[in-house]
Amino acid sequence: MKESDLEGAPPGVAATVAQVGERALIERIRARVPAPPDWVRVGIGDDAAVVAPERNTFDVVTTDALVEGVHFDLAFVPPRAVGHRALAASLSDLAAMGARPRAALLSLGLPDALPAGDFDALVDGLLALAAVHGVALIGGNIARSPGPLLVDVTALGSAQERRILQRAGARPGDVMFVSGRIGSAAAGLEWCRAHGAVAAQAVGPEQDRVRERTANGGQDPAPAAFRAAAARFLYPDPRIRLGWALARNRAASACVDLSDGLADAVHQLASASGVGAIVDGDAVPIADDVRVWFEAQGRDPLVSALTGGEDYELLFTMPTRHQRVLQAVARQVGGLPLTRVGVLTRDPRVMLRRDGRDGPLPPGFTHFR
Amino acid sequence: MKESDLEGAPPGVAATVAQVGERALIERIRARVPAPPDWVRVGIGDDAAVVAPERNTFDVVTTDALVEGVHFDLAFVPPRAVGHRALAASLSDLAAMGARPRAALLSLGLPDALPAGDFDALVDGLLALAAVHGVALIGGNIARSPGPLLVDVTALGSAQERRILQRAGARPGDVMFVSGRIGSAAAGLEWCRAHGAVAAQAVGPEQDRVRERTANGGQDPAPAAFRAAAARFLYPDPRIRLGWALARNRAASACVDLSDGLADAVHQLASASGVGAIVDGDAVPIADDVRVWFEAQGRDPLVSALTGGEDYELLFTMPTRHQRVLQAVARQVGGLPLTRVGVLTRDPRVMLRRDGRDGPLPPGFTHFR
Prior knowledge:
The structure is a homodimer. Chain A has helices spanning about 15-20, 20-30, 80-95, 115-130, 185-200, 205-215, 225-235, 240-250, 260-275, 290-295, 300-305, 325-330, and strands spanning about 40, 50, 60-65, 100-110, 135-145, 150-160, 175-180, 255, 275-280, 315-320, 340-345, 350-355, 355-360. The first copy, chain A, has about 375 residues and is α+β, with helices and mostly antiparallel strands. The termini of chain A are far apart.
């Protein structure tokens, strides 16, 4: 046991972050971070971090915040998943630009009473995802929060000048594709909310799932479909490889991530590109189990999937003449489904086509609505 | 008046950020940001920002958070000062590394009821300081906060490899210098707390102060000394020019900023460098008015100045043979005082010498104490 575990905590009682203290918390992070690559010239522990840039690339940088009570609820989201999701949100932004992620900064606002074990789990969750994508944690900030737990992650990546993907750039006639399955994370969120922390604790990130399923066999207390949906919500897999393949093959005319849902992504991309869109509702890829479940709740599976956020898939567009390139991209991203979901139009309206009839595409999630 | 001002707000009632909505808030920021320099390839409004690196330099990056109720109280800190201070804290970190600031990302957590005018003022305060230092606001994030107002700023700068200043690097025998006057911000904080928002609203940043003093003449309702101290607290001036001069002249063996007070800075620098220190209490530069005021409160001016944070000055060390270089540095930073405040020692203890007697230097401010 480390000395810091004992600071101020009575014997037998789990320490809180307030008892451990700011300096010891930073040391707990530092002890968990693997030796940085040589391009990190100054890492955790100085006034700022120093990074050698990658030759002939531009810096790509983004910041994303998770706020307790708005983006997650510790009653059913394990701290490990909070750390994972905070980094995933920023990495997903880099993926949408076609950037290769390199480094991250972690800024935490911690309620006094947060158990130090939860703090450790949060950091472990972030670092596990960082390891998968070769991201170095190079710095950050720790402050008290008089209210919610706050997790703000800044991610830095690199991209070649002529291979940067943007929201703007799509043209009328370009076709739209989306990766993965839509709505699973929204269903997973509701499953976690209904089943609580104990069930969520049993759900692992994507890379653990096969192993878990095998280990549990028929003993699995949760239906496999919902464990998968919960994992999509708790441990989203940012589509770094897809973004990079799209950039490298110069396949896409525009790209955006689905952090606020597919409907929002279509609106954002169309608006930035100055075009309209028709989404083909029948083509939107929704997992069968998720579709059945939404129906059982009396909800429209398509609208639920379009407007539910947290999927962290990519929406991208390409001219129809590029569709051969799409096959190369598909090979490079392994089994990740890439589904054609619509077309961009000169008509500036953003429409949803269902059963041959067009109506306005619903808006996506925004804060303060 | 913009359309967004009217969204949901009854006539004659000032809109809140919740009524304005996330998208319109982003537009309000975008409308305030001047045209970015050409090295910003993608700015506000995409999934991430893209920046062309400066030739032959390294990226220097830092993040700092201000949390309402911990770092500031809106009862006596105007929103404009919150925006200024949030950027100043990150720029001060870059100054301590000898870096030239280039760009910033702003991540906000906003309570529903925050008046939209306060949001605008916060952004204006940040952008005014950004303009002084040639910093481009290139992106960020807006989220709801169910609790305090949260302001997280990531700053990016550049520095040449061999001119980076670090906390580590000081050697026994090196002398310590501090910039500016210590304790003014702590006194200013207490003055603002006692006099409230109306008085604080009348205090401007450093560049406005001369004009204000002239304009007010003898009519000034607040003693000039305390208006100056309040300005040091509300509108700290990050020592970018000093950090850059120290780096360019290769004058300093180590450097750290004083965000958590001089005592903390000495502890941090000594610990990172693996040395001890003796601070000469009689040499610590405290403004006369501030000293008198601390004494009138029955407090030890030296201890108050050493342990009060928020000064955002720099502490740096240099070998005694470099002291000629110090004169060049002093010329390059104009009238900013640079005061010798002690020496580093082989003995690992960190001591304060007062009236010829040595005792332990008090610890600085840390969160959760």
